[in-house]
Amino acid sequence: MPAEIPRFGPDAAPEAVADAIADAGCAIVEHLIDGATCDALASELAPFIEATPLGGDDFTGVGTRRTGALLARSPSSVGVVAHPLVLAVADAVLWPKKTTFQLHLTQAITIGPGSEAQYLHRDQWCFDFFPFPDDVEVELATIWALSDFTEANGATRVVPGSHRAADPRAFTAADTVPAEMPRGSVVLYSGRTVHGGGANTTTDTWRTGINVDYVLGWLRQEENQYLSVPLEVVRALPPRVQELMGYRLGAYALGYIDDVRDPSALLHDDGPRDVSSFAPRP
Question: Rounded to two decimals, what is the model's pTM?
Fold first, then answer.
C-alpha cells in the first residue's frame, strides 16, 4: 500500500489527481482556495457552528460540532461545492456514471481540544453497508481545511491504499497517516477509503474543516438538500449547483416531479416536458 498521501499544487490536472485517488485512494491539493475565501466561509458559518450541539457518541464526536446545510447558510460555500477541479476529479473517479453525479452532503466539522479520534470507517457504509462491486466507485469525499490541519489538532487520518482492502475493518490507528495540510487545501478520498477524524490533543485549538461529498446520481443523498436548503435560496444559486443538489434527473426516470417533468421545472416554472425525452437509450 502507498505509505503517504499524494500531494498536488493548485494548478494540478484533474486527471492526475484522479489517477492518484485510483492508486492510493486519496490525494491532497494544497492552497486550492485563498485566505479571503477561508475567512468568508469562517465568518458566515461562525454563528451556526456556535449554535450546533456537540456530538452524542464516539462516531459523531462528543467534542465535535457538525454543522450542515452549508448552501443555505454560507454563500461562499458555492465556491467549494462547485469548484471546477473537484468536480472534474469527481467526474473522472465516479463510475459507472452513465448519467449524473450529485451532491451527497455539506458539513462543517469542528473538532474541539481534547477530542479523541473518530473510529475508522468507509463513508460508503452509509448505504446500509451494501457490498458494491469492487470496480464501482460510488462516492468521492472532500474535506477542505478552514484552519491548518496538523496531527496535533485532529487532521483527518486516512489509510492510503485501503480502498482496495478485502477487510476494511482490520485497520488500526497505526495504519493511518494524518492529512496535514495548510489552510485552503483539500483532501479528496474515495468512499471506499478507510479514514477517521483525528484526535485533537491540543488544549486550546479547534480544527475546522468543510466536508463536501459527491455520489452517483442514482443513490440517495446523505444530507437531504431539498429540506436543508429553502427553495428561495436554491433559485438564486448557479444552475450547476442546482443540478448537483438534485434538481435534475438522476438517471432514467429517477427524480421526476408530478407529470413526469424534470425537477428543474420547479425552479423555473417551466411547462410540462415531453415524456419521450426520458426514454432509456442503452
Answer: 0.94
